């Protein structure tokens, strides 16, 4: 059974070892740059602390003076203790959940916290912008920040205090949430 391109991209993202305390932000930034190129998005990187990039992929809207939409996620993941894993944490192992092999789970560090969210943002943009040829009224920024798992002091904190953040003219932001396989939304 072939793997859908969206799943292939997710697996590739999961295999990037952005694990604290020594995340590979360089490889992650290259991956995000390639996604921006494929999607025709503006690509910017700001480092408020050397080696800890804040990556911003922007889809300009038709009315860029309107407050923008920020889709935020973090690229780092918590450390792993491999002896407690059924599958290697950075292999992004696909395991069938049904006898027909039509439904799968992917086991990897970051698969829920939080690479799935950032990947979901990019896939939604891909669907709207590339496949459906939609144009948004407001500018949409997909923001990928470092060091959230250790407090976000060198990434998000410094970013929101910056002139670059102010220039995004944020009107609405989405950030980390919990994955839910069911329909109820708990608040």
Overall 3D form: globular
Can you give the mean pLDDT? Answer: 94
Number of DSSP helices?
Answer: 5
Helix content: 25-40%
Q: Report strand order across the widest sheet.
A: 1-2-6-3-7
Tell me what the structure shows:
- A five-stranded mixed β-sheet has the order 1-2-6-3-7. The chain has a two-stranded antiparallel ribbon with strand order 4-5.
- Helix 1 (about 5-15) packs antiparallel against helix 3.
- By secondary structure, it is an alpha/beta fold.
- The model has no long low-confidence stretch (mean pLDDT about 95).
- A hairpin with a 5-residue loop joins strand 1 (about 40-45) and strand 2 (about 55-60).
- It contains five helices and seven strands; from the N terminus they run ααβββββαβααβ.
Q: Key features?
A:
187 residues; alpha/beta; 5-stranded mixed sheet; two-stranded antiparallel sheet; 5 helices
Strand and helix layout:
Elements: H1 5-14, H2 25-39, E1 42-47, E2 53-59, E3 68-74, E4 93-96, E5 104-107, H3 115-131, E6 140-145, H4 156-160, H5 163-167, E7 170-174
Helix pairs in contact: 1-3
Quick overview of this protein structure:
This protein has helices at 5-14, 25-39, 115-131, 156-160, 163-167; strands at residues 42-47, 53-59, 68-74, 93-96, 104-107, 140-145, 170-174. It is of the alpha/beta class and 187 residues long.
């Amino acid at each position: 059974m072939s793997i859908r391109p969206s799943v292939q991209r997710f697996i590739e993202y999961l295999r990037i070892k952005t694990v604290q305390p020594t995340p590979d932000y360089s490889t992650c930034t290259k991956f995000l740059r390639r996604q921006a190129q494929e999607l025709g998005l503006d690509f910017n990187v700001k480092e408020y602390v050397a080696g800890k990039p804040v990556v911003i992929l922007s889809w300009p809207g038709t009315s860029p003076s309107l407050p923008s939409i920020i889709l935020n996620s973090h690229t780092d993941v918590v450390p792993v203790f491999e002896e407690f894993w059924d599958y290697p944490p950075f292999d992004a192992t696909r395991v069938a959940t049904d006898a027909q092999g039509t439904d799968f789970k992917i086991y990897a560090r970051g698969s829920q916290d939080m690479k799935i969210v950032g990947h979901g943002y990019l896939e939604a943009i891909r669907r709207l912008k590339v496949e459906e040829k939609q144009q948004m009224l407001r500018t949409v920024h997909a923001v990928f920040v470092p060091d959230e798992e250790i407090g976000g002091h060198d990434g998000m904190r410094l970013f929101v205090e910056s002139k670059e953040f102010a220039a995004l003219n944020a009107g609405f932001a989405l950030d980390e949430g919990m994955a839910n396989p069911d329909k109820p939304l708990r608040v």
